[in-house]
């Protein structure tokens, strides 16, 4: 059995960036990182644009101008203005080459075909120049840029439809247990509804990892071995739920050993989630999580999350940690470090009831985990505690 810090370091040291690429339509590229620099195919904006609803004018010495027309956003007209002439114009509309300033409508009075400005305005006022954002042929976004909603919008504004991005890992979730049945089936005596696969799948979806398959296997050694051999061969990451303990019908450990999976650690000094396995087979990472749901999800956030971030070559490998004042007391049993389900808000944290590794009810309303190290046995109200912030 190893310490939490040793286990985390082993995950970091034995996880590597995938460095594979794939092409994605931009509407499906959110959360990915660019594999290459993106060069702008056009000037943005591609024409001189009005930054305001107002009047485009050809400047002269007087404040009064003759109105000769109107230009809306999307119009392709190019009226020729002489000094002292103006056109009504709207935000985003093309500014005629012969206009050299735009006055916002709130500072203009209109009388028939004449307009009067409140004051003189400088040349180029309220006109967005050609290529103000980016020039054609210039760098639009650099390699490794994470594609946020704003980045997607920016690329769409440049007319880009597809981008080459770093490929995200293919992930298999394997659940084991004769006692498990699918929701919707009749729940007979001795059976429970299987929840871990859906829980872990949605934890992955929440982190924008969508290439996930789910595999279910009975407590049968040959079937367990066959499924594991298949998913390890076909995926970058395998997450196994259950079957890793030492019961007569826990076949995962034996199957992994026979498949020659390199065991990097098994069992971590922590609560919940002591029976945690991490190993490698060629370039595939394998985590065998405890079967108890809360323990499985805790281990996912503490360890699997790190491997995923490393695969994506991200800098921040662990979930953010802060210190907060505890609103509750807590007495720890035993000497194992513990992760406690909690609710964090505005610098304070409330440790919740129901810390059993089998209970998801409390976890379902948590947004944080309070980490209690080995040397601390109790927490008093007002104590500063370490808080791991969960993805929301």
UniProtKB/TrEMBL annotation:
Q: Which reaction does it catalyse?
A: adenylyl-molybdopterin + molybdate = Mo-molybdopterin + AMP + H(+)
What SMART domains does this protein's entry cite? MoCF_biosynth
Query: Which cofactor does this sequence's record say it needs?
Result: Mg(2+)
Q: Check the record and name the SUPFAM superfamilies matching this protein.
A: MoeA C-terminal domain-like, MoeA N-terminal region -like, Molybdenum cofactor biosynthesis proteins
What EC number(s) does its UniProt record assign? 2.10.1.1
What keywords are annotated for this sequence in UniProt? Answer: Magnesium, Metal-binding, Molybdenum, Molybdenum cofactor biosynthesis, Transferase
Domain MoaB/Mog, chain residue ranges per copy: 172-310
Pathway in which this enzyme or protein is active: Cofactor biosynthesis; molybdopterin biosynthesis
Query: Which leading EC class covers this enzyme?
Result: transferase
Family affiliation: Belongs to the MoeA family.
**Function, as annotated:** Catalyzes the insertion of molybdate into adenylated molybdopterin with the concomitant release of AMP.
Name of protein: Molybdopterin molybdenumtransferase
Q: Which organism is it from?
A: Mariniflexile aquimaris
